[in-house]
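Entry 14. Ran structure prediction on the chain below.
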Amino acid sequence: MRLVSFDYFRGVAILFIVAGHSFGAWPVDTFSEKVLANIVYSGTALFVFISGFFFHHIFYKDFNMKIFMSKKTKNVLIPYLILSTLGFLYFALSSKSFPFVERLISTDISSWMDYLLLYVSYLWTGRIMYAYWYIPFIMVMFLLSPLFISYIRLSLAARLTLMVVLLLFSAFFVHRPILNMSPIHSVIYYIPIYLLGINCSINREQFDDFIKGKTLIFGLIVVALAVIQAMYFYSRGAPSKVDIFSYGGIDINIFQKIVLCFFFLSLLHRYENKTIPGLKLLASSSFAIYFLHTWVLHIVDQYKPFILFSNIPEVLVWLSVITVSVTISLLIASMVKMILKHNSRYLIGW
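Output, structure tokens:
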């Protein structure tokens, strides 16, 4: 059964991803800006929750690892490999310096072996374009699917206990990896969010009852946690660190993102039987927007067209960048889809 509210939630989630990447040179120094940034940053958690939910809702009943990975390879991995390769060639053939190159290779790039090593490093980390780290991370999650099948078959008490323990471990010790450079670190951090999505699907009726009519409550909790983070914590969005097993303070942003998921689902559940064309389009094209918006933002960062409007409030510039990024991404995706038809999935995931 298709869940319209979750389709709409996917549309909202991609907007959060683009919005988080669109802050650009905005210094984010006032208290209200910090609160806003804490809500918008780290929107990846929304997609991880959705992915976990649909893993159970769609794939669990007749799960076949070979078919599952074949679909994910076609719709996720192949577009990633093609666009990452194009990104690598862009930096190699232009005067632009490779991103994060000093973190990926210890020597000067002087031979084809150096380029090959750097290329492989980019494919593993996803750092050729700053949004692409999500793909190697989620592909590792997909490879762990047999473990999630076993998890689903546990008793309710065992499932919830394991999820809570892993959530506390992520919040107090793991945190996100520095610059999202480690897919394995990201997997350890996000697993409890994925498991939460699975559990919400398994107990969907109870979950729907839990979130029903609580939109305002969840919204207030999200804002309160963002305010607390702005007042007492240095990080914007989820904090990050290198060492998984060292105490790094509490990551309250991960709890805020969980409540944010509940907020949007509580809100969107009211529109389960209504058509919202904009969100429907964003949902269906979410992977294409994900793959393409980082290219659009790279061009915006290079040419900074909004510097011509220096008198405009920064928040309006930010909203304009989001709008431009999404619109251009959709236009490019539509043209690619028109030209390649069903083969467009291999290039843009749509």
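The mean pLDDT is 94. Will compare against last week's run tomorrow.
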